[in-house]
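Please review the protein record below. Let me know how this chain folds according to its tokens.
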Amino acid sequence: MSRLAAALVYAVLGAVTFVVCFPLLWAISTSLKPKEEIFRWPPTLIPERVTLESYRELLFGGAVASAPGAGVPPSAFFVDWFVNSVIVSVGSTAISITVATLAAYSLTRFRFRGQRAVPYVAILGYMIPSVIFVFPMFLTMVALDLPDTLLSLILGYVCITLPFCLWLMWAFFRGVPIEIEEAALVDGATRLQVFRQIVLPMALPGIIAASIFSLIVSWNDYLFGRVFMNSMDKLPLTVGVMHFFDGTHVDWGLMMASSVLMTVPMAVLFGFMQRHLVAGFGAGAVKG
């Protein structure tokens, strides 16, 4: 490829990258502007005066609120919303990955009736829109006396993440050579030792890929949080930030700052796990 062609390719890729990243850049810019500058016309991408007022209000606004209740601004609950999202995302991911890993291993190593149909039924369940599950799940949570609890949200997220995690881990385990396990069993290792010391390390890229998928789905979900949760201090981030809207006013500074803070955890996670993510999805696609 000539230098001119290479330069043209890089220019196109740079332009596409800028277009894709522009909404995030605009959110960062708006979150750093003082409130009077946000509505100034014409708008500018680079703030004339940088301020952390919106971030300070989100992260430390709860310190001035004595208790949840009337008169407390929504920004006072942002830290609670953030912690709630972390708890339900990590909790649902832990359950989904544990069940999916054990189930996928059993599907690829043992023989039983209906074995071949289970993965396809699971992926079919993932393809069904989650809105179909939300109200039966809500009625189940009411019967179990679990509405408006983080546990109900965790179980709801498991329902929408487990099928795909099972399918991905099943495809990955099918590519793990069974001869290695058989050799270890002949040498006297137990099935549990083989699973823990041999199979899990080999399946780590698939586990990481499935975990990231589950975390992203749980972190970004709005529907289950909107239906299951009522208490202001128990809302997840996706539902909580909607309280920055009201009938006549939108606090764009807080909205953009909260959007940036919501993006940071997933961006950092992607940065650290990108290599494992590509390896996991690639192995599952090729070997499945």
